Amino acid sequence: MDRRPIIVWFRQVMRLADHPALVTAVATGQPVVPVYVLDDEAAGKWRLGGARRWWLHHSIAVLDRDLREKGAPLILRRGSTVRQLLELAEQTSATTVYATRSLEPWARTLEVELQRRLTERGIELKLFPGSTLLAPEEIHSKSGHPLTIYAAFRRAISSRDVPTPQPAPAKMPSPADLPISDRLDDWQLLPRSPDWAHGLRETWVPGEHAALARLDAFLEEGLASYHQLRDRPDLPGTSNLSPHLSNGEISLRTCWYAALMREPDAGQEAFLRELAWREYSQHLLYHRPNLAEAPCRADFRRLKWRRDETALQAWRKGGTGYPMVDAGMRQLWSIGWMHNRVRMVTASFLTKHLLLPWQVGEEWFWDTLVDADLASNAVNWQWVAGSGADAAPFFRIFNPVKQGETFDPEGAYVRRWVPELAELPARYIHAPWQAPDVEREQAGVILGKDYPPPIVDHAAARARALAAFDAMR
Ligand SMILES: Cc1cc2nc3c(=O)[nH]c(=O)nc-3n(C[C@H](O)[C@H](O)[C@H](O)COP(=O)(O)OP(=O)(O)OC[C@H]3O[C@@H](n4cnc5c(N)ncnc54)[C@H](O)[C@@H]3O)c2cc1C
């Protein structure tokens, strides 16, 4: 038997279960060398943002512990992936590198370069599925074209067999001489001065075990009512699996199958529909590599977006004077996550009320979300902005007050994240400027001092956005 080790390059898959590259490597019986390379340069503009870096630190720590228990510690390297993997292959005498295929454009470019450079040295790179339900080549129209409309995409997935998830390997042999590894702390992925991560620490437990436990808890407690509660940011109605999925600690297939094995009902159907949105986003990014930068609809290139640093800053910091928007932006800043309904409201507010380009919102989310995912972020920003392949029409402009009244009827969500409004009665909490002076006084809210008045008037901002849209057409 070949005793040369196989390098298993961990990329966006940070787990042992349902990890085809790892399972196949272990099945050969050869020793394995698991490695993670932090290559900010290759990722360029899409290097991991602050919140994902915090998550990555903890995710790596858990992964390394789990791999050690199985027999093969995680080797950490920083810098050029090509250089690091070539060096590692030389040091370990490995002639094969196994990895999970990525659908992100910068990572695909890297794969091509790596393939070329490894081949020159007689080393083979084998890429495996692992981040999606199905390969993008498997889903297409009858004429062989990519499916860009979500409903058709969803139907196509239902008609295919999604491969079942694979269990984690029982143990992993590693070579007698281990190559040297960086120290995780030296990577300085955690924020220090200032340390802004206390909200993240209090909210999240990164790692594969926590991901699987979260899935189990959601299936028991949340799935049955998911379709009814998923739009309510004031209630714990969604799975909170997104950071685990985006960080590769649990596979989409594992979530998909776990839900599919349940009794079919409206909760299951709704949850599978959302998982399919994630898959759809990945496939769309694969077919449109510039999705994160350029509008899918070409006419949107002509839209006259505004530039307004003051308004942008007010949006980022949760100081727009619209409580539902501010609550969302502060939730994001505090815990690195925002409820989906509020993501839509805040994104609509940025692109329509403020008429600022969706890309600046996308970048802020990229830096602050623990679940930041290139494909999901881009698809959803374009969906809200109206420029997406399958998007909400631009003229559908969320009224942030009505959204608040409908989806946070008692104002519990706003009270939690905008505590200066906590004492306002529910009927005014989403529009404090409409409260009679005496009500505001009793609640201890002075507009302009404790909480800002609205930075734009809803009706005027709506008219401005529609005029810009008409001019574009
Ligand atoms: C402007 C905007 C930006 C977004 N950026 C991201 C992002 O960077 N990363 C990210 O994972 N999600 C993003 N989303 C989608 C969605 O908001 C989150 O996936 C969801 O809120 C995560 O919470 P959850 O795990 O409790 O979701 P659940 O409601 O429990 O859904 C289960 C899973 O389905 C997937 N999912 C649900 N909704 C969507 C969706 N609209 N698009 C794609 N996948 C979905 C997620 O993986 C999620 O974990 C964005 C949405 C908007 C409107």
Can you characterise this structure?
- The protein has 473 residues and is mainly alpha-helical.
- It folds into three domains: 126 residues, Rossmann fold (3-Layer(aba) Sandwich), CATH 3.40.50; 116 residues, Serine Threonine Protein Phosphatase 5, Tetratricopeptide repeat; 175 residues, Orthogonal Bundle (DNA Cyclobutane Dipyrimidine Photolyase, subunit A, domain 3), CATH 1.10.579.10.
- The protein is built from 22 helices and five strands.
- Strands 3-2-1-4-5 form a five-stranded parallel β-sheet, sandwiched between helices.
- α11 runs antiparallel to α12, α14 packs across α15 and α16 runs antiparallel to α17.
- It is globular, with a radius of gyration of 24 Å.
- The N and C termini lie far apart (66 Å).
- The model has no long low-confidence stretch (mean pLDDT 97).
- Bound molecules: flavin-adenine dinucleotide (FAD).
Key attributes of the depicted protein:
473 residues; mainly alpha; globular; 48% helix; 22 helices; 3 domains; five-stranded parallel β-sheet; Rossmann fold; DNA Cyclobutane Dipyrimidine Photolyase, subunit A, domain 3; Serine Threonine Protein Phosphatase 5, Tetratricopeptide repeat; binds flavin-adenine dinucleotide
Can I get a quick summary?
48% of the residues lie in helices and 5% in strands. The chain contains 22 helices and five strands.
CATH C-level category of the largest domain:
Mainly Alpha
The CATH homologous superfamily of the largest domain:
DNA Cyclobutane Dipyrimidine Photolyase, subunit A, domain 3
* Distinct compounds present: flavin-adenine dinucleotide
The fraction of residues in strands falls at 5-15%
Which sheet architecture does the biggest sheet show? 5 strands, parallel
Detail the poorly predicted runs: none
Ends distance: 66 Å
Indicate how many domains the architecture comprises.
Answer: 3
CATH architecture of the largest domain: Orthogonal Bundle
Mean pLDDT, as a whole number? 97
- Adjacency order of strands in the biggest sheet: 3-2-1-4-5
- In the CATH hierarchy, the third-tier topology of the largest domain is known as DNA Cyclobutane Dipyrimidine Photolyase, subunit A, domain 3
In total, the number of strands is 5
